[in-house]
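Narrative progress, year one. The postdoctoral researcher (J.K.) led the effort to move from monomer predictions toward full complexes, under supervision of the PI. The following entry was the first complex the group processed end to end, covering 374 residues in total.
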Amino acid sequence: MVHNRKTLGILTTLKGWCFFCRFNGGILTMTRMYGDFPAYGNITQGAAAEGYYATPNFTIMKALYYLSYLAAITNDTEEQPINGQPGRVHLPFASPDKADAAPRIQQPPVLAPRPDGQQFGGQPGQVGYAYTITGGYETADDFRQFHKDVDYGVLQFEPWAKENYLGPKNWIATVVSNGKKVVLKLWDAWKFDASARDQEVSIYLQLKPLWGKVVPSLYVSTPIHFFHALILQYVDVITSPYIR
Amino acid sequence: MSAYWNTVSQADRTALVVNQAQVQLMWQSVANDPRILCEDDVKVSVDSYPKLFHRVAANGALGATLPSDIHSTIDRSALGAAQWGLTGVPDFVMHHLNRVTVLMEVKNPWLVTPQRIDEVINSIVRLLSY
């Protein structure tokens, strides 16, 4: 939900339903798991007997009806610095392989007031939302950096902005250390293993002499949150108006 | 939610959108089906029951009367053109005016139980491993 700045979410097993709501500042609220199916023969004793929370004054269908109304009138929720603080909100890496608590969204450092009494202005690029890919990513088994001497540790990534959308798996992001655009290619790791990403890496490595000339350069192959990811060179293609 | 229901007009409350017996039959057949065992089974069932009847009641599908207020529509999501431009691939989304408004994840009922959700809410388990 954070990655797509969505405010509302649903988790369902069909028998049980949980409803989610996000707020800025890294706050997620969720309901207990409700169920409203009846007892039936020797198949089920009913929702309450199976441990689901009863829905005494509503049904799941009513809840869906209400949520679909609420969703239509509710704006997306972009994580932004709380209290108008300038700077970037960081989303640290949460390793799926560790049992410790997932890190919370990091707010930018609080700046001391300016002596002249003026407020700090938020410059373009200084306020926003970024993936932090330091630490856990560099130690991941499948982290590989092919483009040395550039710190890809922090990426400014706003996938909801239409100008950043290149296709179902591709987005434009900005490397914070040098301000350059890159292409992020992402596979949902909950749905796909890393084979497609790794095959693409092997193809890129075969084409290495052509990097930056005929094909984009491959910079990094890495996990990013729940994605298998590639960080690629951004090529700004200028189309001739005479070619149709 | 009760505050919302107090605002729903009498016309919306009493509009005939679907046969109740049909809803109950479908609900029972899905909720009590012992062969819904994996995520794909659950997705098919969400398609055939909650999604269908929500569309009828909330979006005027199959010729039903439209409600007087606006509602998002439930649809499947899948990799590629059906991904709605989202990072990651949710199983379903709600959408309104071409904007995704709700992300919906389907899980296997054997793996995500009310007790596990309680544990997350009570911070007994902090990281789900399913």
